[in-house]
Amino acid sequence: MTTLPVVMAQTPSAQTSSMETGSGSLLPVYKRFPLEIVRGEGTQLLASDGRSYLDFTSGIGVNALGYADAGIAEAARGALECGVLHTSNLFHTAPGEALADALVAKSFASKVFFCNSGAEANEGAFKFARRWARDLGGGDKREIIALRGAFHGRLFATLAATDRPQYRAPFRPLAGGISIAERDLGELSRMLDHRSVAAVIVEPVQGEGGVRVLEPAFLSGLRKLTRERNVALIFDEVQCGLGRTGWLFAYERTDVVPDVVTLAKPLAGGLPMGAILMTSEIAASVQPGDHGSTFGGGPFVATVAKHVFERLSDPALLARVREHGVWLGDQLRALAARRGEIRAVRGVGYLWGIDVTRPAGEIVANAREAGLIILTAGDYTLRLLPPLIATREELARGLEMLEGALS
To answer: What is this structure's pTM?
Structure first.
């Protein structure tokens, strides 16, 4: 195990005050952990108090290759040496085009659009689906349907597709033409009977919504319905894609091929990047000027993302995530069998949710005291998102600390 060097800790009073107030200049929209992270290596994070923590959050699914990765650092240095961090999309640059080629080569897609985040990717997907639907059925074919438990972002359209009343209420009215359906094929069939529906968006694994793995049979049935009704099927793989499930794309663990896939979180190894992958049919409807991004696919970020994507595409890495993911699920179910605090376990690969009988935030705090950083996915659900490089031994150590945190 890598041991990070200890840094000089602040005095307890100064540290507590700093953690509670922060700088005072940042808008306080986050409930931050009482930690200031100063370094990272592998799966370990070092805080300003000198303590080392095993990270089972991956920066909320971003740091798939862990911390202080030599390959990412080398790719970034190489990108800096050319002296062109940004040109705008008025010009061709090789890194973005090479990354797009790589994504197309590994997926169903024929075209790619780059942006800066998952929410932007989903907003763009909505626009592209509506543009395609307008060509297909005129201006009336514009409705977007999302599913119960969905989280697609916090912009106006993606917030309308996000099933979180507490997030939505302060910002009504939200973007129109977007509704939420139950995870039920019967209800979806009735809703898709309306000729106004342009697209359905789903997360193959609902991360923020409690780590709910949508069954292949459900997704296959939905694909059949959308094809019959000429409706675009969008897969939001912002959190569950790019190796997290043990497949490069989450749709690959099913027999379903969507029309659009959105990506972000791990794509550029911690640098801001999102991507929209689409079929030739969707792409053919999009015209110059229909959409844009000042920074999307810039040469610096795209160079790093190309390196990350190649690493995440490695069959050996994906096989390890699948193998360790099965083991991790077995261990979590065994933990549930001996611990009454656990009501249910769900997940796949390196993405797991654990329903608990008391507030999840309390257990997260206990785990942090033990040296393990985990997340919630609801008031009574824990979420585990280890870096994809986490070894069997590191997973076992994390589970041991988790069991202690339940006590």
So the answer is: 0.94
